[in-house]
Design goal:
Blueprint (H helix, E strand, L loop, with lengths): L13 H107 L4 H13 L1 H6 L6 H23 L10 E10 L7 E9 L1 H4 L8 H19 L7 E6 L3 E7 L9 H10 L1 H4 L1 H6 L1 E7 L2 H4 L9
Parallel strand pairs: 1-5
Antiparallel strand pairs: 1-2, 2-4, 3-4
Length: 318
């Protein structure tokens, strides 16, 4: 007997059929659940792998953020170093330009002086010039030295001398012709300490050699010398504008031998904007100074913080 309830004719009972149907259904459900479980296991494994990859990407992003933060943390120092290097390079470049034009300027000045000498030594010119200067500088005394009858003749001769000496006077007052070079700008490097608030110190670095100051008695006045004069005048004018004319000024060598003007302002009661005052003085140099027109140079200013002018790693003494 197989335990199945059958009637004597061999037919299954209805209950048995129903139970077998339930068993079949359950088996189907279990098999379907198993298939779904396998699929979920596969999805879970895939998602876990993807999650691990995403987690690694997040860690990579965090690491890159830290790298950027480190780069930014040292960027100011690196930027200062690069600006400092750019300043040194530009000062050297401008110094080379000035040195070249100084030679050309001196040659042009010598040619002008030779022309003036030729005019001044022409026949009779020296006597006429002496007579003209005597009457021009002290008319009353010159007229008193001769009878009144000759006053009109003396004055007429004086005017005739003026006309004859006109080419000499024009040559004396004329500017040297502009050099045959391209117009070029040179830059002063200026710094105020502190950057904000009342100024305690001013530094101006010129693209000319310190020798222009240190050895002024041993060298002829040239373009470098005149640039130095003009910038010193600009500094003095700016100090006067802010009521600090009595501030002590000293001159020192900077880095590659350039001239630096240093002003101590902590003991002065400065009033006004020092930067604006100096910028205004410098702006008028090109238009006022004949040597700038002759050398075809213009002057500009870049204001830099003290730490760029003299970095912390700088061994130069202030």
């Amino acid at each position: 007997m197989n335990g199945e309830a059958q009637d004597p004719s061999g037919q299954q009972f209805a209950m048995q059929v129903a139970l077998e149907a339930v068993a079949s259904w359950r088996k189907g459900v279990e098999e379907e659940a198993a298939r779904r479980q396998i699929a979920l296991d596969s999805d879970e494994a895939r998602l876990t792998a993807e999650l691990e990859a995403l987690q690694q990407q997040l860690e990579d992003v965090a690491q890159k953020r830290e790298e950027i933060a480190r780069e930014l943390s040292v960027l100011p120092a690196y930027a200062e170093q690069r600006v400092h290097a750019a300043i040194l390079s530009s000062l050297n470049t401008d110094g080379t330009i000035i040195a070249d034009r100084a030679l050309r300027y001196s040659a042009a000045a010598a040619a002008r002086d030779e022309k003036l000498s030729a005019l001044a030594t022409a026949d009779g010119v020296a006597q006429k010039l002496e007579a003209f200067e005597q009457l021009e500088t002290n008319r009353a005394e010159a007229l008193a030295s001769v009878p009144e009858l000759y006053h009109s003749a003396l004055i007429a001769q004086h005017e005739e001398n003026r006309r004859e000496l006109a080419p000499l006077f024009e040559a004396l007052s004329a500017e040297i012709e502009p050099l045959e070079v391209e117009p070029c700008g040179i830059t002063l490097v200026a710094s105020v300490d502190p950057v904000t608030g009342p100024p305690e110190a001013l530094a101006v670095i010129l693209p000319i050699s310190f020798d222009a100051y240190q050895r002024w008695a041993d060298r002829e006045e040239d373009l470098e010398t005149w640039i130095g004069y003009r910038v010193v005048a600009a500094v003095s004018g700016a100090l006067s504008t802010i009521s600090a004319s009595d501030a002590p000024v000293q001159f020192a060598p900077y880095k590659n031998g350039q001239l630096a003007i240093q002003v101590w302002l902590a003991d002065s009661e400065a009033k006004g904007d020092l930067r604006a005052a100096f910028d205004e003085e410098v702006a008028s140099l090109t238009s006022r100074a004949a040597e700038f027109r002759t050398a075809r140079l213009s002057l500009g200013v870049t204001w830099q913080p003290p730490e760029v002018i003299a970095p912390a790693t700088d061994e130069q003494e202030d």
